[in-house]
Design brief:
This protein is α/β, with parallel strands linked by helices and about 250 residues long. The protein contains nine helices and nine strands.
């Protein structure tokens, strides 16, 4: 998988493109649009250090070609600064400035436990005619590689989580020591992480409902591949799935 290779490279998640690189990025994206691309995907959550001028250039390009952007916002955090609220504000400001239709991916994960403030911000923007739309998936768990920036540093505080056991590998709760080991030696390892517990906590179910039931929101079908207990991918048309195979809930739902 591309992301297993990508997360083995150091530094790229917080590197800035220089002017020449931005120009080449815009040229390649525009070429894709001219070849029939439906919109522009911006995976900012995995590269939160990318340039704001680059993001602005992508928004202008989307407006030029009258296509939407689909943005996994820059920060997934309940802490300020560099919060999900701030990242959504950045997206809203670019939509207002450029006129581009900017679609928010994974509102529940973007906002997490701060969803009340985030949905209020989005509703205010929409009420003032800013062309933003929303998508959410109906689970309180996310899945990615353990080396993603969203799981590094003081990640528990940023997610508003209690301890490292909210992250799972092969369906088993992890420790911070195990996470540190994998981030050093196998950063492309696929893990699941529960930022909300809607089945156990009514207050978490209410938070999830705020994003899933947001007026006009789409339901996300984004998923992850199934992984065997030994870390290899389940490939091909396999049914029933191998015993112990795991994936993001979206992979089943």
């Amino acid at each position: 998988m591309w992301f297993q290779e990508a997360f083995s490279r150091d530094g790229w998640q917080n590197s800035l493109a220089d002017d020449g690189e931005v120009e080449r990025i815009i040229d390649r994206v525009e070429k894709g649009l001219l070849e029939g691309g439906l919109g522009i995907g911006i995976n900012g959550g995995y590269a939160p250090g990318y340039g704001r001028k680059e993001y602005h250039a992508l928004a202008k390009l989307a407006a030029k070609h009258k296509v939407p952007t689909f943005t996994h916002v820059r920060y997934l955090s309940v802490q300020e600064p560099e919060s999900g609220f701030e990242a959504l504000g950045e997206l809203i400001s670019l939509a207002a400035a450029t006129g581009a239709h900017m679609h928010i991916c994974h509102l529940n994960a973007d906002a997490g436990r701060d969803v009340k403030a985030c949905v209020e911000l989005i509703a205010e923007a929409q009420g003032n005619g800013v062309p933003v739309t929303v998508e959410s998936y109906p689970y309180g768990g996310c899945s990615s590689t353990v080396g993603a920036e969203v799981f590094r540093g003081d990640w528990l505080a940023r997610w508003g989580a209690e301890d490292a056991s909210v992250m799972e590998l092969n369906g088993e709760p992890m420790t911070q020591e195990k996470i540190d080991e994998l981030q050093k030696n196998a950063p492309g390892t696929v893990v699941n992480m529960h930022f909300l517990h809607p089945d156990d906590k009514p207050e978490d179910a209410e938070l999830l409902d705020l994003s899933v039931l947001y007026p006009g929101a789409a339901i996300a079908s984004d998923a992850m591949p199934w992984v065997n207990k030994d870390g290899t991918l389940v490939e091909g048309d396999v049914w029933p799935l191998p015993t112990g195979a795991f994936a993001h809930p979206r992979s089943a739902g």
